[in-house]
Amino acid sequence: MGSKVVKTETPVDGVQPQPSTALAIDGLTKTSKMKVKWSQLGLIFFLLLSVIMTSCFIWQYQLPKLEQDGNLDGNSRSVRMCPRFPEPTTLEHPIPSLKEALEKVDFVLRNRINPISLPALSAIVIYNDTVLWTGNFGKRNGSDPNSPPPNEYTIYRIASLSKLFPTLMLYRLWEDGKVGSLDDPLEKYVDIFTIKNPLGKSKDSELKYVTDGLIFLDSGEVQIRSSSVTLRRMASQLSGLPRRLRATNLLWKGKTQTAVSLLQDDVLVADPGTKCHYSNLAFSLLAHVLAEKVVGVNYQRWIAENILGRLGMEDTGFDINPGIQSQMAVGVYSSGATAPLYDLGWYRPSGQMYSTAADMAKLAMVLLGAYQRKLLEPDTLKIMLTPLFRCDKDYFANRTGTPWEVNEQLGYEVLRKDGDLDGYSATFSLVPRLKLGLVVLMAGTRPQNQDVVSKAYSYIIPAMERAFREARRVLNSPPNPAPYVGFYTYGNITFYEIKAGPDGVLIMQQFGPQIEDLIPERYRTIKLNYLVDRVFRVVFEKEYPCVLRVNTASVSLEAQDGQLFNFYVFDKNGLSPGFDAPGLNTYNVVRIARRPTFS
Ligand SMILES: *[C@@H]1O[C@H](CO)[C@@H](O)[C@H](O)[C@H]1NC(C)=O
Ligand SMILES: *[C@@H]1O[C@H](CO)[C@@H](O)[C@H](O)[C@H]1NC(C)=O
Ligand SMILES: *[C@@H]1O[C@H](CO)[C@@H](O)[C@H](O)[C@H]1NC(C)=O
Ligand SMILES: *[C@@H]1O[C@H](CO)[C@@H](O)[C@H](O)[C@H]1NC(C)=O
């Protein structure tokens, strides 16, 4: 049993060497029925939005920029529509364009099933706290003609997706104060940890570590005892630690103590923090050290009690016993041969776990901050979902996060964790900005000819953007509109009228001599969403051109969308004398008694 030789940096692991897949035979497979689950959430709007205002607001019209752009042919198709990154909002299902996109995703995944190399696949699409769609294709046991299709509760090995859990543990212990800093060096927790770092040579860091008391002086020579292998870097493929321990494969059954001593005469393959380098060793060592040295409990037990139990991930775990096996999709090599259910031993934190689409969906909702059970504070989630480092071209992802691989698609950061282990492949992915998640679990070999996850997102992302742009917004009216209603001016150049709509929500319209001639009314009207006392937010209810071109002038509507208006304290008549829009660097928009007359 040899370990797989991987020449380029890829996430693929496995115990048995595998030839790369033969051409996938597409379109020959029987498929199972898809299920489209539309959210059944109450989609009741509190406000009557019978009058739908198409609204744009030419706040800075009086300060036109000269348009340098040669694209003046008036071709409306070339106009970029905004908001470019529409905010996730409550969706009112069904949404035909989203349904159509999910049907395309269904088609793509259904046709990746291959009776030899990929007999079963389960996928789930999450939006915030809801499941938008699930797809289960193929057969749980490819070699049994009577085998049923998998479902959301079918168990798959998730391979390197297991690396999510040491990372979650790190963040939790950090929140609990049991880990002082994410940037603590490993030596703080394992005092005998040393490894050669021939590529690290910064004098500054030597001095820094003197003050940390982590180096010793020996015959006048400064020697670095700290390797800068920090906890965060270990969970971000930035530690410089080798892929595995010397002369071990993923089945190694040693102890952490032995692992640390094996490292003593090993070398870091990169100066920590300077290069993305995939390491199973780093995650396993991190997990075992946190468990043994920080909480003093076995790693698996800690994960089971503090994460799986807490989130209700009932079908997720480490030990593949006969009961679990009977619920599993049967994993195969690309040849179709059934893969053994290897037990990874010391490397278990990096790749041993199994789970289901339903459980992974719960985890996705937790990380999107939307699940009813909480694991991490919102600020910690923000840190967790932020990429850390740009990788070299030879790495398989553009950026690395903790623990993610991050690439951009259609302008959005897509965070992924991919796993490939004998017989199974899996991807867990999030698009935080859209509150989207997609999990694909496969019994078999990942299709080599196409990345099904980015293909799926190429349909889902535009459909979600469109759904958000077209969604009706629930706007708040102020407790009493009277103090805000009236006429305002900014420097006697631009003029505004604020009225209360039938639902009490404030409507603001710009007027004035040139404005009315040049700009259609729908581009002069906005709504003001009441947030807190005297503070409102500019709302564009519909798609709008990011930049509005009027003759030779251009106005960025994008810059105005979402800005805050801060109204002044009410005067003795109970009226607000004016307001500021600090985000637009605009102050002293003052109330005037009546509509001015223009000569
Ligand atoms: C997301 O889910 C949370 C929790 O259910 C909810 O409070 C929030 O309003 C949702 N956000 C959107 C945009 O639907
Ligand atoms: C899958 O089906 C084959 C053929 O019926 C059977 O021999 C094998 O034991 C099954 N595998 C599992 C894990 O159930
Ligand atoms: C990295 O980014 C570049 C440019 O944005 C893109 O062409 C390339 O495909 C990306 N690499 C990966 C692995 O996604
Ligand atoms: C605007 O016009 C009014 C009336 O003509 C005048 O009193 C006021 O000073 C002017 N304000 C500015 C900022 O020019």
Describe the 3D structure.
Helix content is about 20%, strand content about 20%. The protein starts with about 60 loop residues before the first strand and ends in a 7-residue tail after the last strand. The chain is an alpha+beta fold and about 600 residues long. Strands 4-3-14-13-12-11-10-9 form an 8-stranded antiparallel sheet, with helices on both faces. Strands 15-16-17-18-19-23-24-25 form an 8-stranded antiparallel β-barrel. A hairpin with a 5-residue loop joins β16 and β17 (about 505-510). The chain is built from 13 helices and 25 strands. The protein binds 2-acetamido-2-deoxy-beta-D-glucopyranose (4 copies). One 2-acetamido-2-deoxy-beta-D-glucopyranose binds near residues 397 and 407. InterPro entries: Beta-lactam-related (IPR001466), Beta-lactam/transpept-like (IPR012338), Beta-lactamase-like_AB/R (IPR051478). This is Putative beta-lactamase-like 1. Belongs to the beta-lactamase family.
